[in-house]
Amino acid sequence: MLNQIKILAQVVESGSFSKAGQVLNMAPSSISRAIDNLEHTLQSTLFRRSTRSLSLTEEGEYFYQESIKILFDANKLISEMKGDRAEPQGMLRISVFESFGNLVLAPLLPRFLAQYPKVKVEIDLDNHMVDLHSENIDIAIRIGTPQDSNLKARKLMPNLTSLVATPEYLAAHPEIKQPEDLQHHNCLLISHARQRNYFYFSNDTEQRRVPVSGNLASRGGSPLLSAALCGSGVLLLSTWMVEPYLKSQQLVEVLPSWTARSSEHDSGEIFAVYKGMEYPKPHIRAWLDFLVKELNGS
After folding, report:
1. DSSP-derived pairing of the beta strands 139-143 and 90-96
2. What is the CATH number of the domain that holds 10?
3. Are residues 168 and 48 in the same domain?
4. Contact 238/163 with Cβ under 8 angstroms?
5. Residue 134 shares a structural domain with residue 282
6. What is the pLDDT of residues 13-66, one digit of tens each?
7. Contacts of the segment 166-172: beta carbons below 8 A, 24+ positions apart
8. How many Å apart are CA 126 and CA 35, to the nearest integer?
9. Which residues pair with 130 in a beta bridge?
10. Are residues 275 and 149 in the same domain?
11. Domain range holding 289?
């Protein structure tokens, strides 16, 4: 049964029989037979199956959560008997939004791979929200608290934002004294597929919502940052993206006495999200621990 549990766990992690078969080097029909045999042994239906989706039943979710504890303990015992410590190894597939992937993760990857030489990384820079249940992704990096209760999350770092522009832009346009003054400026916007865009401001005593507009919108921050550096407008973006340019004074803060956000309910945090495994595989756990240590500076 232990082998069937391994297959079950891989199906859940991969999201389909065919993808699990690719990982385990088994035919999808063999995967299906193993799950059928396991369901027959348990006298329970573990999966809801259709031509378009595969999901655990309530009984399947319970068995999966309990059985992976057994799988973890078994793997740990085998490692102890073999005299090793389950060195992290295998393919690690990461989905991350483009700007964070390029600016923050990319410089960290060589150190991680040097520390764990048996791990291979495949990184997908995509500003679209991936579905970890249906796509072959181990970890996704996201801004904001995950809404899917079936996913686990590790907080990596705060996602503070800064309202900035070039000194040249500010000198050539009307002075910005209050948040409402932004209505008369060209604001460079993260695209949220909304008809209207707002910036949300707060200080010790007030909260304000200001409608903003501009001639450039993007799902990712990099095009907006390039435009802001050319003096095209006012930009509200993650501080970790604009901080080098604030230090060099290519950009300056606008309305520094106010805290500005692009969403009313923004959590202000960046998370690593992974499928609901109580005991993630060693290479997944190693990457999570590495990220938390590097990004928290601890």
Report:
1. parallel
2. 1.10.10.10
3. no
4. no
5. yes
6. 788 888 888 888 899 899 999 999 999 999 999 998 877 778 899 999 899 888
7. 166/228, 166/229, 166/230, 166/231, 166/250, 166/251, 166/252, 167/249, 167/252, 168/231, 169/228, 169/231, 169/232, 169/233, 169/234, 170/252, 170/254, 172/231
8. 33
9. none
10. yes
11. 90-158+268-296
Most confident of 24-28, 70-74, 234-238: 234-238
Instruction: Extract the tokens encoding 139.
Output: 């970890």
Could you tell me the sign of the dihedral formed by the alpha carbons of 280, 282, 288, 292, in that order? positive
Q: Which residue has the tokens 């604009």?
A: 242
pLDDT at 201: 95
Token code pair at residue 63:
């068995």
Two tokens at 184?
Answer: 């008369």
pLDDT tens, position by position, 121-166:
999 988 777 777 667 788 999 887 777 767 788 889 988 899 999 9
* Residue 162 tokens, joined: 């800064």
Q: Distance of alpha carbon 130 from its chain centroid, rounded?
A: 9
CATH label of the domain that carries residue 239? 3.40.190.290
What does the angle CA 216 – CA 201 – CA 190 come to, to the nearest 5 degrees?
20
- What pTM, to 2 d.p., does this model score? 0.65
